Queue: 2 jobs
Job 1
Amino acid sequence: MNNSMISAMVSMNGIQQRLNMIADNMANVDTVGYKRKEADFQDTLNSVMQQSPEFQQPGRATPLGLNMGYGSRMAELSVNFTQGTLKETGNMTDLAIQGNAMFQVMTQEGEIGFTRAGNFNLQPNPEDPATSYLVTSLGNPVLNTDGEFIEVPSGSKLQIDGAGNIIAVDGTVETEVGRIGLVTPLRPDSLIQKDSNLFVLPPGEIEGVIIATSDLALEEQATIRQGVLENSNVDLANEMAEMMKVQRAYQLAARALTSSDTMMNLANNLRG
């Protein structure tokens, strides 16, 4: 296989990965709290084909040696954690974070997860029908500042202030439930995306390095808004434009592969 075919094939593979990433962004344009994925590309290792000294003729300005590349590859896949637009829903269990923070939840595997998606609901406690848990749309329990499930009296109305304090109102009776636990991402690019809007710590990492506990009562870096949801930060128009550009690059790489195959076929026929 010649170098031109290798370069085209490697480039097509990287471009296909980028197309898959764009498709994922577009599919999640309406996903609450979704953060746009971005890709960085770099050239693969280059090699130099040495030339005989007789190629060094008078007047030649370039040094001996032919630089040969092998296409480009996707070097890094990152997540854009910029704030998405907010929309009011009026639902008492819908929460949005305005600022740099994330909700803490318990995943199905029993590990701590982090999300910006606040489309929560109340799920009855199987052990106590008189209470309910605040859970995500996937059924993952939302955690308070002590790392425990948020348990509220069934049938009560919830009042949640900007600091995350929860008050359950049942008629004239008000009960303090606790405070929603938040974390501040210190190195968000190090988080592992487990689901479209759910992140976890890398294996072996502990809190304090990648994320830190956020106390909204003491810090003004973030605010919780009740009855509001954060939209995806994906711009569909930009994704469509990017997809068209990447598809064009894929077509050019495929054409280069076809041309290389045609030239190799001609060379084989000449040898015959």
Note: Residues 85-231 form one domain.
Job 2
Amino acid sequence: MSIFFLSLIFLCLTRVRFAGADIIFIAIISVLYYLMRNSTAYQKLKAEIDAAFSDSTLSTPVPYKTAIKLPYLKAGINESMRLHPGVALAMPREVQADGATISDFHFPAGYRVGVNPAVVQYDKDDRMSKNSIQIAGWKVMERRWKGP
């Protein structure tokens, strides 16, 4: 493991001390997990961060408004949070007046339905499901999260 990676882990683990820290910690660990699973993604992110420090785009401590200007880092964080959401609560919605049929089950109007965000990522029909994330997926989501 490189000094860069160890420094990144140390920085992440020592900065989580405030409200919402558990969600932030989950997001950080998720990013690190996906980076450890793919050395190409790790090398690309490392190169982007090193270049940003070299040209003084980044300095320590790294402010959020500066960090999100790094497209690969921003995309990796967003994709990691999509694949491994920090909140495991169902996101309830109220069924509209005409009712709803979900997976062959009919729900009447006014009924509240919800699903855990992590479960949604297992949809085999979703082109961005967990099964399709190969960190080439980082390339896909790089375009997806680039924004206007």
Note: Residues 129-136, 140-148 have pLDDT under 50 and may be disordered.
